[in-house]
Amino acid sequence: MNPYWLDWLNLLGRWLHLISGIAWIGASFYFVWLDNHLLQPKNPDDSDKGIAGEVWSVHGGGFYHAQKYRVAPQLLPEPLHWFKWEAYTTWLSGFFMLCLVYYVGAGTYLIDPAVAALSPMEAITIGLGTLVLGWLFYDGLCRSPLGRNDRQLGLAVAMLAAAAAWGLCHVFSGRGAFIHYGAMLGTLMVANVFFVIIPGQRELIKAKLAGREPDPAPGLKARQRSLHNTYFTLPVIFTMMSNHYAMVFNHPYNWVLLIAISIAGAAIRVYFVARHKGHASPVPIVLGVVLLAGVAFAISPASAPQAVASVNTADQFAQVVHIVQNRCASCHAEKVTQAGFVAAPKGVMLDTPERIASHATQIYQQVSSRAMPLGNLTGMTDQERQFIVAWGIAGGPSK
Known about the structure:
The protein is mainly alpha-helical. It contains 15 helices and 2 strands.
């Protein structure tokens, strides 16, 4: 397909994914907040009707009164609003983006020969297998005897996620590994909605329509999966934005960083869920912040590479220009020559010495983190990379 139209599909697909994700996460966070702020009904008649809790709120110039039933009302109201299409649309648009970017462009974005020499078909098969097997293992854990103990189940799910992070980072490029880790967690979330939460709600409605007492077990399972979903949310959002931060996904221990940041995100969410209930311990959020700070300090760059002379003369700058124009300007130029690109990414053009000098800081950051050249398609050598890093540390342009 023409790269121009691929870019439009990318733009529209990403836009839809973002919109539906905001709607899904927003609704999910709201209902967690709502459930944790319910108070005993003040009207005794409400308790007799089966109402378990209520909450008053004000928003947008109006007052709202929400009530939750212990199981279900005596008569089902019409219309009854469901919250499912936000989840389904988020996953479908995300899967579309996964295919468009990482499977159509597997050789560029998904495969890193320095990590594993995979063919595009092998890489795509592993990627899809991660989504399917991740759900099967997770669902099996939830349905096992561990499912009756939330703490033991949570530890088992965390170990599953850690194993996936390690495995993906040892077969894919850092960028591809992080996005597949997030896609796996996102798949668990939407599968929870499709296979557990919505069926549990349908069973509740069927029981009411049949005139029999609803079984609370499906509702309890749905609540457990909903709680898992809210803890998965922040790690998933991190992986969605992680492709902008090569300092993390291209690090030699990227899988350790991915696990640490996921734990930090989940811990921060634990704090806010507990805070809704009014008895939050500061331990989870302190743990999350300490983990994030620890990651930031652990991967901070060294002051300068050893055994490389300072690069600050005109002749040495000319060598930098030569490297950049050979290794980077096929994509970053006024007239792009690299197949699959129709314009310079982010508008960054490096086809003249003046443009290279004006983007010195970006060049240093992208080359030192090994984010660029993308997939090292142009074959930048370690010596060339080291030369540019030394130039950046020495202050960049010399003219």
